Amino acid sequence: MYSLMVCDDEQIMIESVRHIVEKEFSNIRIIETARSGREAIEKTLTIKPDIILTDIKMPGINGLEAIKEIKKVHSDVKIVIVSVYEFFEYAKQAVELGVSEYLIKPVKKERLVETLQRIICQLDNERRKYRWELEAKERIEKMLTAVEHSFIYSLLFAQVRKSDIIRYKKEFFDIDNETGFIFVFTFRKKGRKNSYDAQLEDSLDNQEIYTLFKDNLKYKCKCIVGPVMLDRVVVYVAQSIDDLYQQRVHSISCIEEVMNLLEKKCSIEFKVGIGRIHRDKDILISYQEALKALNCDESGRIVHIDDIAPDIYDVGYEIALQEQKLMISLENGDVQRCLTILSDIFRKYPNFFEQESIHYRIIEMMAAVRRVATENGIRDNTEPGYYIKRILCCGSREEFEQICTEEVRNIAYQISARKKSNIGKIVEMTNKLINERFSQDLNLDDVSKELHISPQYLSRLYKNETGENFIERLTAVRIENAKKLLKENRYSIKEVCYMSGYSDPNYFSKLFKKHVGISPTDYQKQTQGGF
Hints:
The chain has helices at residues 11-24, 37-47, 63-73, 88-96, 109-156, 162-173, 196-203, 207-220, 244-266, 283-294, 305-308, 320-331, 335-348, 356-375, 386-392, 397-437, 444-451, 455-466, 470-488, 493-499, 505-516, 520-527; strands at residues 2-7, 28-34, 51-54, 78-83, 101-104, 179-189, 223-229, 232-238, 268-274, 278-279, 302-304.
């Protein structure tokens, strides 16, 4: 529905327009009328009509002056001038003011209807465009959030190359420098008991706190904010290595401002652990430092690693390489390798169940395992957070290890099966393309383009799965086709050559003899009883 305001000092004109609009349009409603330019301006300030139909000559402020003022406060409005004046100067001013149409009184009903219909089409298109832009913006925001979360996971589990880190930071987050630090923010609502069940319950209701935290932090510094994982958020802050002490003081001050705002608005209890500044390739060290600062016994709510343990690194950093190997093995669908690595992690930290920092580290690792599953198209048919809930409810180290092992084994098996299925489809599609297009100038590059994979990967995969390479298979199909055509005795050797995908008859004859043992001519005679 579109709104219309009619401005004219003659009531009969207003009533005529009302009659036409009510009779001819179901999607236009006259919401207001005005008898002067001043009245039109004042009413536009409050009602913001989609269309204004106005005369030029009215008492006081005329129509053109009114349009100038209206455009200042409501630039998107569509304006139609209806006037007895046909002066060029008026028309010129109307064009300069962005008036949609200039109609001369008396206006025929058909002309007014046609004009309003055209304006409605314009408004429809503008609304569609605006909706599309909003949807596009929303999609981009969701994509950037997903990239942001993925970036944090990749940093923590060393799943991204240094060159990719630099490129992503520049392209997606407008961050140039190659150094920064990690801080970990953990929180809960005031009065909430410190139990795993309470943490899980809170984790489902923390979006408002998270959004406020993220928006305010990004306003103060260049950073990449990870997702809420149970009761905590991991943040990468870009910062150069200059005066480390001043940078530490500034970082703590910046984070403190955001935390105080959250505490007031959301009534939360919080603690923050901050790591040192490191190069991106060593950012895991900063993460482990942040965990150590977070889990220390200091009474402060914002703790920097240098305030409690200068030059001491958390032992949890040692499992980073094992975690990286686990993610790579999971991506490859290597079930046995995954289980071996997971077992090694649990053997290395037999008392982790009593060590909160290591305990959380493994929970975060399992969240990354589930992310790898999602990225590989493995659907989780259980209720949201099912495995995390099971992990949080574990009463013993043995139960914890069993659940983690079960989850990793299940995902690794599914990824392995999916990869085998995909490989089978690739081989099947390759054979199909060879059988359909062997008579054309077909090569490995052509087929790999069709399948959207690299020629090197296709060549290696096809050889591993079939025992023969691509060109061997293509040649075999072409030679079989040539033998069939020669048996029919309807074509010359040259025609058989071309119909089998070769452009050089001499090369074709040599290749045929190499595979069949005799020349094409002799083969044709033999099949026709010539020998």
